[in-house]
Design a protein that fits this description.
CATH architecture of the largest domain: Up-down Bundle
CATH topology of the largest domain: Multidrug efflux transporter AcrB transmembrane fold
Radius of gyration: 32 Å
Number of strands: 14
Distance between the termini: 37 Å
Number of helices: 26
Shape: elongated
Largest sheet: 6 strands, antiparallel
Number of domains: 4
Helix content: 55-70%
CATH class of the largest domain: Mainly Alpha
CATH superfamily of the largest domain: Multidrug efflux transporter AcrB transmembrane domain
Length: 792
């Protein structure tokens, strides 16, 4: 591969416009496709095969009116006055009428309102469908006399108030200070055309503001857009500064920025272009942006730094140095990128569709970063030419001695090697302590109760809790199956609801109707506590495990869905597959590093270091986001569970990036060992050669990831912090500190491998030995040719 990449680098350098035009045509094409096709981002995160998903499929076939998505708007009065009287009540009714006129909103009739909305605590008892308030045209006075429209309206309002409602679908709290409007859509929320949600929220807000009350949309009505903002620019700014300090010129530092941004633009453009075919969650493009920027900048840095090194140390021309840089550092970049792609691709083995999409989009972005670094970057180097190094930089470099250039690296590595046992014990103890909180890590999904205090979704959640109780933020949609061969009767529903209400952790239960064949009964179960409470989790499992005790009818079975149940299923499924994925990663790590370094102990050492990184990273995440330690520093004011799919995604990403640093650092030590340096000297020499660029690469990644901590989206914030902390730990504590100490302790044994195994392992030539032999042969042939010409 090194010879092929050398030739590719020379070709790209000499004919830069070939790849420049190619990549910009690709960029223009994907952006055009994304714009013309439209971008569709989904907030729905589901896992096929879970119990909640099976119930959703039943609802779609048996209860089509409830198969669409739901949204909730909460009305409150800033002054604490009642919202169910006077102008406030009229404004809420008017907003409901205007919202119901939307073609994608299912208008609720008065016959459905008692079943759809959960009843307040002071209701007289479960309401059977026939007990719902009658529509005005069916209301009659005494002795069958027709009443006037005004009297009909008054009777309707009285009937609604008896049920704790202001209007069909609008529930009023006991003290009248909070109104809860639930909106039923004909489609899932993520499938609604652009602008529908905005129209609904704007309509409610305008009517509320006219009378001085507040309309607060819950998280169910948040806009489905990629949570991207200016925070990425902050990370890029710091990364640019690191590049400038490492490479010594704005011209050289600008090249990785150009290639990194271009790679991300192509990757995200392609993902958006496919968003109408492949479902993208809101976190998918953000993850691709994070990883694409980080690896794109790092991979370009490795190649440009190697070219400058060859120009300064060996006096090569910029063209020859570019070719050799691609053949050596480019080989390492190609293999490093392959490791990240494999690690992300391993997530597809878990069989979770939204994780597969996230992993494949991120992997594609990494692959693009590698291809751009191997094709476009040498083209840009060709345009820059010899100006990649100024005459002053060349002169300054020549005036410095090797020891001066690497004084700190030499001193640090020597100190680590000398005190290696203290270093090993200290690092392991420190990371072990940091990992302790991981033992109490709980997984969940973001909801209004864990959002920041000033957000509308948090204000809405707090208002619902204040007016109705925590459980009203976590309703459970419950489907009860009749015993085999039997059917339900509408008159049985109140008794079933009463029986369910006697269960532990149940606040109230409301019937929602029967399926067309009367074999399924639909209920809303309101738990006593919120979505993240242990009692709610227990209630979901208790309902699903019931075989008739809770319903009072032997042989019935219960299915539970709704956002709370879906999130619970996702969290439990991901928690169960995390050990399997870590096992896959460990095995993969051992095999890959065995092939790269042709050693038995180095893969074991690298994998143990990675496990220390993962444990400490998740421990710190638990302490900050779940326990609330230092939460103000990352911009959160409410502790909550760790994002359910964060551990498995971060494990895959960190593995790929950690092995990058392992390869770049240890390959330099191996090169020093091959060239005759023994034991600790090989460790120090290899550290000196690679530490500066590894430190710069790690600083760039930490900067890029840390920039996302300032995002207002909690998912993005958690991912940014997890990756920034993980890279900080792995690069500086594991690879730069623990690895040299362990390598010095192992000595020559670090490079041992059985002879039979050495013979069958493929030679990947990461260090470019074949390229060196090829260039030596070419020089020999050139000298021979010249000698023949002179003799002739």
């Amino acid at each position: 591969m090194s010879i092929f990449l050398y030739r590719l680098g020379r070709f790209s350098y000499r004919r830069p416009w070939v790849f420049l035009i190619t990549w910009f045509l690709i960029l223009g094409s994907v952006i055009t496709l994304a714009i013309t096709g439209g971008v569709k981002i989904s907030s729905a995160i589901t896992i096929d095969g879970t119990e909640s998903q099976a119930v959703i499929e039943e609802l779609r076939s048996e209860f089509p009116d409830t198969a669409g998505g739901q949204g909730t708007i909460v009305f409150t009065s800033p002054s604490g006055e009642r919202v169910d009287e006077g102008a406030s009540a009229e404004a809420i009714r008017s907003s409901l009428t205007a919202i119901s006129a939307n073609e994608f909103v299912v208008e609720r009739s008065t016959e459905d309102l008692a079943a759809v909305m959960p009843k307040p605590e002071d209701a007289t008892g479960p309401i059977a469908p026939g007990d719902a308030p009658q529509p005005p045209e069916q209301m009659q006075g005494h002795a069958g006399q027709q009443v006037s429209p005004a009297e009909q309206e008054m009777m309707m309002q009285q009937a609604l108030r008896q049920q704790g409602m202001l209007a069909p679908g609008v529930l009023i709290s006991d003290d009248g200070t909070v109104a809860l409007m639930q909106i039923q859509f004909s489609l899932q929320v993520e499938d609604l055309p652009a602008g529908v949600i905005d129209d609904v929220v704007t309509t409610a807000t305008q009517h509320a503001e006219e009378v001085g009350i507040m309309a607060l949309p819950t998280e169910s009505l948040k806009p489905h857009e990629p949570p991207l903002g200016g925070h990425e620019a902050l990370g890029l700014l710091v990364a640019g500064l690191v590049l400038f300090l490492t490479l010594g010129s704005l011209r050289a530092a600008g090249l990785p920025l150009v290639t990194g941004v271009l790679g991300v633009a192509v990757g995200l453009g392609g993902a958006f272009a496919l968003s109408n075919t492949v479902e993208l969650t809101s976190a998918t493009p953000v993850l691709a942006l994070m990883i694409g920027l980080a690896v794109g900048l790092d991979y370009a840095l490795f190649i440009v730094n190697r070219q400058r090194h060859l120009i300064l140390r060996e006096g090569l021309s910029a063209a020859e140095a570019a070719g050799r840089a691609l053949g050596t550092a480019g080989s390492a970049v190609a293999f490093a990128g392959l490791i990240v792609v494999i690690a992300l691709g391993g997530l597809t083995l878990i069989g979770i569709s939204f994780l597969t999409t996230m992993a494949l989009v991120a992997a594609a972005t990494v692959l693009l970063a590698v291809l751009i670094a191997l094709t476009l970057l040498p083209s840009l180097l060709g345009i820059v030419g010899e100006r990649i190094l100024s005459p002053r930089a060349r002169q300054r470099q020549q005036q410095r001695s090797y020891v001066q250039r690497h004084g700190f690296a030499h001193t640090f590595a020597s100190g680590v090697v000398k005190g290696r046992w203290a270093v090993i014990i200290g690092v392991v103890a420190l990371l072990g302590v940091a990992a302790i909180p991981m033992t109490q890590m709980s997984l969940g999904m973001p909801n209004g109760s864990t959002a920041n205090l000033e957000t509308t979704e948090r204000l809405a959640s707090d208002a619902v809790t204040r007016g109705f109780g925590e459980g009203y933020n976590a309703p459970l949609i419950t489907v009860i199956h009749a015993p085999d061969g039997e059917h339900f009767d509408a008159t049985e529903l109140p008794a079933i609801a009463e029986s369910l209400e006697r269960g532990e952790s149940v606040e109230t239960v409301r019937p929602m109707g029967l399926s067309p064949d009367d074999t399924l009964a639909l209920f809303t179960v309101i738990p006593t506590e919120g979505a993240d409470a242990e009692s709610t989790t227990t209630l979901v499992h208790t309902l699903r495990a019931d075989s008739g005790d809770l319903t009072g009818i032997a042989g019935t079975t219960i299915g539970v869905t709704g956002l709370t149940a879906i999130n619970l299923d996702i969290s439990e499924k991901l928690a169960s597959v995390l050990p399997l994925y870590i096992t896959i990663i460990v095995i993969l790590s051992l095999l890959v590093l065995l092939v790269v370094f042709r050693s038995i102990l180095i893969p074991i050492k690298a994998t143990v270091g990675f496990l220390l990184t993962i444990g400490a990273t998740f421990g710190i995440m638990t302490a900050i986001f779940q326990w609330g330690w230092l939460k103000d520093l990352v911009g959160i004011d409410t502790a909550g569970p760790i994002l359910s799919f964060l551990p498995i995604m971060v494990t895959g990403i960190l593995y790929g990036l950690a092995m990058d640093y392992e390869m770049f650092l240890v390959s330099s030590m191996r090169e020093a060992h091959v060239h005759g340096h023994q034991g600790a000297q090989a460790v120090i020499r290899g550290f000196e050669q690679s530490s500066r660029v590894v430190v710069a690469a790690a600083a760039i990644m930490v900067s890029v990831f840390a920039g996302f901590i300032f995002s207002e989206d909690s998912m993005v914030k958690q991912f940014g912090l997890a990756l920034a902390v993980g890279i900080l730990i792995d690069a500086f504590l594991i690879r730069m500190t623990l690895v040299p100490a362990l390598m010095a302790t192992l000595g020559r044994a670090a490079w041992w491998t059985p002879k039979w195994l050495d013979k069958i392992l493929p030679n990947l030539d990461i260090e470019g030995d074949r390229l060196t032999d090829y260039l030596r042969t070419q020089r020999g042939l050139t000298r021979t040719h010249r000698a023949e010409q002179s003799n002739g």
